[in-house]
Amino acid sequence: MGGYRKHRKIYRRVSNDVVVEFGSFYPKLSTPIIDEIDGLLAEHYGSTPEGLDFIVNYAIKYRMGAESEDEGEE
User: Fold this and answer.
1) Separation of CA 9 from chain center
2) Is 33 part of any domain?
3) For helices 31-44 and 49-58, what crossing angle results, to 10°?
4) What whole-number distance in Å separates Cα of residue 35 and Cα of residue 52?
C-alpha cells in the first residue's frame, strides 16, 4: 500500500461550501512492487515460470490497461 499511497493524487471539490477531499490511486505506477509480490506468491505456491509470466502479462494487458501489440491490426 505504500507504493499506492506514494503515487496517489488528492483531489479537492468544493460545492455549496462543503469541501470534499478524496484520493485517486494509480496502480500502473506501482507495477515494480506488484511484480515483486507476484513473484513471491508464485514461488510460495510453486508456480512455473510460465505461470508467473501469464499472471504478469495478464495484469499488464487487462488490469493496467495496456494495449496488446496486435490490437487494431488485421
Assistant:
1) 15
2) yes
3) 150
4) 9
Backbone phi, psi, residue 67, to 5°: -80, 145
Q: Which amino acid is at 44?
A: H
Q: Encode the chain (74 residues) as per-residue pLDDT tens digits.
A: 777 778 888 999 999 999 999 988 887 777 888 888 889 999 999 989 898 888 888 777 766 555 444 444 43
Answer whether residue 38 is part of any domain: yes
pTM across the whole model: 0.52
Contact by Cβ (8 Å): 21, 12: yes
If one counts the domains in the chain, the total is 1
In a domain, 72, yes or no: no
